[in-house]
Write a structure and sequence with these properties.
Helix content is 75%, strand content 1%. The protein is mainly α and 291 residues long. A hairpin with a 7-residue loop joins strand 1 and strand 2. Helix 5 packs across helix 8 and helix 12 runs antiparallel to helix 13. The longest helix is centred in the first third of the chain and has 32 residues.
């Protein structure tokens, strides 16, 4: 075995040299911090004194004695349900429209994708200006004689306002992904369905959706993972307020890091990791393609 290993290294040493750089980077900047964070989650550490081992105390506290985390989890779950319940649907609808033979299709594709290419901080700042008391949205509503409000300081509208901005920024990505998948479905399938007398709805239900199934699964896995890690737009637009009605799990984690509760923040990070792993497994288990 030793000789075979030496021969393999000598034969492919250039390939091993190339892959060694990203592998070392992952070990140093991903795996070691993950292991260190897991160890810290069982400790009480402020970054000043030495870590004190507390066992499962951090996990017991965040599961049973942290109402702010419960509210943050509820806010984030609402964000995920409403965001992922609308964003991919809008992306699919726009992709179906762009998949037709229309003029300036490439231009529309670029327009849809442009918000996704823009920094979330920039997008959040623009929408914060739109939602302001004297912003564009209230100006339009006032001109139509409709009631206005302080969208980002009203506990009843703040989270919904952030969801709208996030969906607007993100559904262009889904549009491009779905459009590429639609163009990969063989045209012969549609022609055969038309010969069999299938109407537009039947072709969509029995040809388009099955062809998009793995892409839909991928979009929802990526979308749910990203949505549960929402932070930037909330931090810029509301800072978690008003009255913690827009605080997210990552925002709560960040606030604990700010107060130098590194052990407790690490426990929150691993609870979030467990949630994302569970959702990803369930989606693959129940909605993945059967082999």
């Amino acid at each position: 075995m030793g000789r075979r290993l030496v021969r393999a290294v000598k034969k492919y040493y250039v390939a091993y040299l190339f892959i060694s750089v990203p592998v070392i980077g992952m070990v140093v900047f991903l795996f070691i911090p993950m292991i260190s964070s897991l160890a810290l989650s069982f400790c009480d550490w402020s970054g000043i004194q030495s870590p004190t081992f507390v066992g499962l105390a951090n996990y017991r506290k965040l599961l049973f004695d942290d109402p702010k985390l419960i509210q943050a989890f509820a806010n984030t779950t609402i964000f995920v349900i409403l965001g992922q319940g609308s964003g991919p649907i809008f992306g699919l609808i726009s992709a179906l429209a762009l998949n037709q033979k229309i003029r300036f299709r490439a231009g529309f594709r670029t327009i849809y994708f442009l918000p996704y290419m823009t920094s979330m901080v920039v997008v959040a700042t623009i929408w914060k200006m739109i939602y302001s008391q004297g912003g564009l949205l209230n100006a339009v509503l006032g001109g139509l004689g409709l009631p206005t409000t302080r969208w980002l300081t009203n506990p009843n509208t703040a989270l919904l306002a952030i969801i709208v901005a996030s969906v607007w920024q993100g559904f262009g990505f889904e549009t491009v992904i779905f459009l590429a998948a639609l163009q990969a479905i063989p045209r012969e399938f549609y022609e055969a369905a038309m010969i069999d007398g299938a109407n537009a709805w039947n072709r969509f239900w029995h040809v388009t959706l099955p062809g998009l199934r793995p892409i839909i699964l991928m979009v929802y896995i990526i979308g749910i993972i990203g949505s549960y890690q929402v932070f930037d737009q909330i931090y810029v637009m509301t800072g978690g307020g008003p009255l913690n009605t827009t605080q997210s799990i990552v925002g709560h984690l960040f606030s604990n890091f700010t107060y130098m509760k590194f052990g407790y923040a690490s426990a929150i990070a691993y609870i979030l990791f467990a949630i994302l792993a569970l959702f990803s497994y369930l989606q693959i288990r129940f909605f993945g393609r059967e082999e």
